[in-house]
Give the backbone structure.
Amino acid sequence: MSLNHRQENGIDVVTLPERLVMANAGDARAQLKDIIQSGSGRVVVNLGETTFMDSSGLAVVVAGLQAARKMDGDLYLAQMSDTIRALFELTRLHTVFQIFDDEAAAVRAFG
Amino acid sequence: MQRVDIDFNSDPDDMAWHGLIETRLMPLAQAAGLGDLEVFGLQLALVEAVNNIIEHAYALEPGLPIAISGECCADALRYQLRDQGRPMPLPLPSGEPAATDAAGGRGWQIIRAGFPDVHYERREGLNLLTLSRPVPTA
């Protein structure tokens, strides 16, 4: 599994896979960490293709957020489906991430 | 009463069993009249319960048996997970929310959100975890 990644105006935009679960979370976590540490620490994670995520998947984005903030950056989430949003609300993680309806808005929010 | 049984082997690097849960077990929840978000919550709870078996009961060892039976009665939807791994430590986790900055610890919160009734017993070398929830009555 390889995360889809590109840079836009110095911001790392990463698209997570359709399923982010225990089987691929370790790989995704390592890749996301490498991307963040190689960049500016300003990251947008696009969840538009993600239809299923378990607690291992949540741990990937939490680790990404911590890595970004350690670099005085941040990690924003974009294009979350209703079901993924329900998961974030259940685990209260919607209170620690900035969540945007679309990727462009998340990129713009970095100014 | 409707009943469905599935079985597969543990494999921490494989997600094919997700498809079995989705296509074989979730139709029971849909037939019971649960909405899409509720069905998603149950599917997620079952995935977390299987993750626990693979990670803790079987310590990530592949090729070990896991079975799940699902049944829908007039007033309840019930899934029983069976494995031959290490016993679960008791008491079972309460499912209290993890700290928002914690890397892990959300699995039981998700399991208990989907299934308010959780019962565990160890019988003849088997772990039996039964997850139940009421279903809408007609």
